[in-house]
Task: inverse folding
């Protein structure tokens, strides 16, 4: 019976954290979200942090888009309209 209860609690734990992305402090710094440490958006856990996966995806997509725009501008293929 103890094994079944233990297995269920592990499954429950996995379900709780499926909506989070685990990041180290360096990764959190790298995407510019270390200022959120200590808020409800970033949960400290052992040697890193859990970040809501929706926020992580939004930031990652925005950073990817920004990098593409900067590369295009550096290559002279994109002109900002005024």
Result:
């Amino acid at each position: 019976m103890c094994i079944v209860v233990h297995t269920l609690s592990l499954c429950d734990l996995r379900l709780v954290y499926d909506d989070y992305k685990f990041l180290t402090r360096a990764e959190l710094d790298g995407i510019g979200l270390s200022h959120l440490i200590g808020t409800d958006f970033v949960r400290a856990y052992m040697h890193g942090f859990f970040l809501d996966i929706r926020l992580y995806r939004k930031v990652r997509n925005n950073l990817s888009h920004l990098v593409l725009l900067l590369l295009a501008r550096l290559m002279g293929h994109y002109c900002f309209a005024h």
User: Anything to note?
Assistant: The chain has one domain: 20-82.
